[in-house]
Amino acid sequence: MREIIIDNKFMFLLPPLDKQMYAWLEDNILQHGCGEPIILWNDVTTDGYHRYEISRYEISMQHGVEFKTADMEFEPKDEVILWIINR
User: Fold this and answer.
1) How confident is the model at residue 20 (pLDDT cuts 50, 70, 90)?
2) In the predicted model, what is the mean pLDDT of residues 11-23?
3) Of 5, 7, 24, 49, which has the maximum CB count within 10 A?
4) Residue 53: which domain range?
5) Residue 1 within any structural domain of the chain
6) Per-residue DSSP letters for the chain?
């Protein structure tokens, strides 16, 4: 399995989910799977932190939630930051 890196500097560019929204997302992923890919830049998560966290946890708990990844091509790190903010 591909090693995915969480960069806290990238993650904190986005507003956090409140408990209710996180619970909804977790329930939705358990019922329907992780429909949207986790977006990566050089194996670093740029979008889909919560989906990745939930899916990874559920896989370890043997629920079998699979997820896909999609790679984005950016040159400097600044392009990644702008993409995350404008997403």
Assistant:
1) very high
2) 91
3) 49
4) 8-26+34-86
5) no
6) ----B--HHHHTTSPPPPHHHHHHHHHHHHHH---SPEEEETTEEEE-HHHHHHHHHHHHTT------EEE---SSHHHHHHHHHH-
> Which one-letter amino acid corresponds to residue 65?
V
Determine, yes or no, domain membership for 2.
no
How many domains are contained in the chain? Answer: 1
In a domain, 39, yes or no: yes
Average pLDDT for residues 18-44, to the nearest whole number?
A: 92
44 inside domain:
yes
Please count the other Cβ atoms lying within 10 Å of the Cβ belonging to residue 63: 12
Query: What is the residue whose two structure tokens read 């939630």?
Result: 65
Which pair of structure tokens corresponds to residue 73?
A: 């091509």
In single-letter form, the type of residue at position 57 comes to Y
